[in-house]
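lol forgot to send this yesterday, sorry. struct tokens for the thing we talked abt
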């Protein structure tokens, strides 16, 4: 889980078209009252080609190419994806490259941090006529009351995918990933809150209830898996590839990614499930960057993505659940019937959004996460412990906590 030159147009470019005409007429008639020469009215100023785009900062393979082509055909605006590999990278991009991105995708846990840093623009809902299509559970969320900053896109869980040819009958529990028989064959996403959630669930503790001592214990468990059981970390593309190629027999993975690789790789027997302890649930949302230079284009893009058929096409192609109630009649039957994508209520009740109990717990999460990452990098030969940066307890987590 990336030039920001601002073009300057002449004074006339800053005026509305009617104003340009009035200025031209006034100039033509001043001092030329007896002239019968026709007045030449200038053509409307051309819209610069660079304004006919909207840049979207997003995960790889998280937009439908066909849908983006339809948007360009209807509006003349080209969608230019800008990719990031982690939420931390996305935040740094917004901070260091102002004006580069118009729209960005953000997971729920980070919205408050971005709003606090004023990296996202407050939305004008009057420009989003299709917002009414959003299903009630995704309106007015705790992480963004009244959807001030976010337009819900897709939702899902973080679950286990596995190789059926290697593990025919897996125990439906997160604890299976710690079994000695699978040493060196397990991958975790390099997303700290998901990893801590897994460790705590195997301890029978909910992430939101974990005290500092329990967070420390979870960190030690994770460190032990890296050092003694060959646990590896990777971004979403890496854990998918490791599973497909057989380097891993089990992977922590996003629900839609699991469904998609199972469908697209029929020669590789891949199964997936939400463990009996439950899982992290998340909502990915679109936001408008505070420094967007093409805000009107951004609103057109968002409203297009809120259309029922657009939302359905996104869900069907990406294999994630939709936040759009109007899209439901257009969703594929196989998607609606997949209980890992649309879980039963009893399973969904065991899932939770990112949340931590206290700031002290957050500090301990960051300390433990850095230790686990250093151990993984050292073991994989990417960097030694001596070369690593010092621990920063105040560094933002992979998903910002909601303090209860």
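and heres what i got for the seq, position by position
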């Amino acid at each position: 889980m990336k030039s920001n030159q601002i073009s300057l147009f002449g004074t006339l470019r800053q005026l509305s078209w009617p104003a340009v005409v009035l200025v031209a007429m006034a100039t033509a008639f001043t001092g030329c009252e007896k002239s019968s020469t026709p007045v030449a009215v200038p053509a409307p100023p051309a819209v610069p080609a660079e304004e006919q785009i909207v840049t979207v900062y997003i995960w790889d393979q998280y937009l439908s190419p066909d849908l983006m082509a339809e948007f360009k055909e209807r509006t003349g605006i080209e969608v230019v994806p800008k990719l990031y590999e982690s939420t931390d990278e996305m935040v740094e991009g917004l901070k260091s490259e102002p004006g580069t991105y118009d729209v960005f995708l953000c997971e729920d846990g980070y919205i408050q941090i971005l709003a606090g840093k004023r990296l996202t623009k407050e939305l004008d809902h009057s420009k989003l006529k299709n917002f009414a299509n959003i299903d009630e559970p995704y309106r007015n969320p705790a992480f963004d009351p009244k959807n001030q900053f976010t337009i819900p896109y897709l939702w899902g869980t973080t679950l286990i995918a596995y190789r059926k040819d290697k593990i025919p009958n897996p125990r439906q529990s997160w604890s299976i990933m710690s079994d000695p028989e699978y040493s060196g064959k397990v991958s975790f996403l390099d997303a700290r809150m998901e990893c801590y959630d897994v460790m705590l669930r195997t301890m029978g503790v909910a992430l939101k209830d974990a005290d500092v001592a329990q967070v420390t214990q979870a960190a030690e468990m994770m460190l032990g898996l890296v050092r003694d059981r060959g646990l590896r970390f990777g971004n979403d593309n890496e854990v998918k590839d490791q599973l497909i190629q057989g380097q891993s027999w089990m992977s922590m993975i996003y629900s839609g990614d699991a469904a998609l690789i199972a469908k697209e790789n029929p020669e590789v027997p891949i199964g997936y499930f939400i463990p009996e302890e439950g899982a992290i649930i998340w909502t990915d949302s679109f936001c408008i960057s505070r420094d967007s230079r093409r805000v009107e284009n951004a609103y057109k893009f968002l409203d297009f993505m809120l259309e029922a058929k657009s939302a359905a096409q996104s869900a069907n192609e990406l294999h994630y659940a939709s936040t759009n109630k109007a899209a439901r009649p257009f969703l594929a039957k196989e998607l609606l019937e997949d209980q890992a994508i649309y879980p039963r209520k009893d399973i969904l009740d065991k899932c939770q959004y990112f949340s931590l109990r206290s700031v002290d717990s957050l500090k301990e999460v960051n300390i433990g996460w850095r230790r686990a990452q250093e151990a993984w990098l050292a073991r994989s030969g990417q960097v030694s412990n001596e070369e690593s940066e010092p621990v920063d307890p105040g560094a933002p987590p992979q998903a910002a906590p909601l303090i209860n």
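The chain has a mean pLDDT of 84. anyway ping me if u want another try
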